[in-house]
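Title: Prediction job returns without error message
Component: structure pipeline
Severity: low
Priority: P3
Assignee: unassigned

Description:
Job completed but the reporter wants confirmation the result is attached to the right record. Sequence as submitted:
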Amino acid sequence: MAAATLVSSDEFLALPRTGGIKRERIDGEVVEVEVGKRVHEWPKTILARELTLQLGRRSRWQVISEIQFRLGGETDVFPDVGLISRERLLSQRGEFLEDSPEIPIEVVSSETAQRLQTKLDLYFQYGALEAWVLYPNTKKLVRHLPDGSATTFGPNDIFSSPLVPEFQIRVGDLFLD
C-alpha cells in the first residue's frame, strides 16, 4: 500500500485516475488500494449479482457498486457494494452521494484492520444501519451493527439480514473454492 498524503476535497478530485488503483480519502488522508484481483472482485461480483436478482425491481433497496460517497467534508469512500434505499437515492441532488449507504459492504483483501475499523466507524457516524464485511481468505461474512456488535457467518451458514428479509445466500457461495 502506498504512503498516504493529506489533501483537500478539491485536491482529491483533481488527482489523475490510475488504472488498477482505487483511491479513497479518509479524514483528509489519501489511501491507495490495489483493485482488480480475483480474490477481491469475485465475491463482490457474486454478491452484487445475487442482491440484484433476489431483490428485483420492486425492492426498496438499490444495489450500488464503487460509487463515491462523501462522508462529511474530509472523507470520500467507494464501498465495494452497498444498499441504499430508493428514497434516499432519489433525494440526492449533488455530484456525489452524501452520507453512507444504509448498508455498505466491503470485501477485505488488502485493507488493514485499523483502516477497515475506521471506515466502519465513519459509515455508522454518517447513517449506516449495518455493514457487511466479506473475508475471502476465511470465507466468512461479518454483519456489523452501529452499537459495535457483530455476527460472524461461516461458509456453510445462510446469511440474511432483518433489514433485507427478501435476500439470503449461503456464505460459501460468495467465494472461490
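Comment from assignee: result matches the submitted record. The first strand starts at residue 5 and ends at 6.
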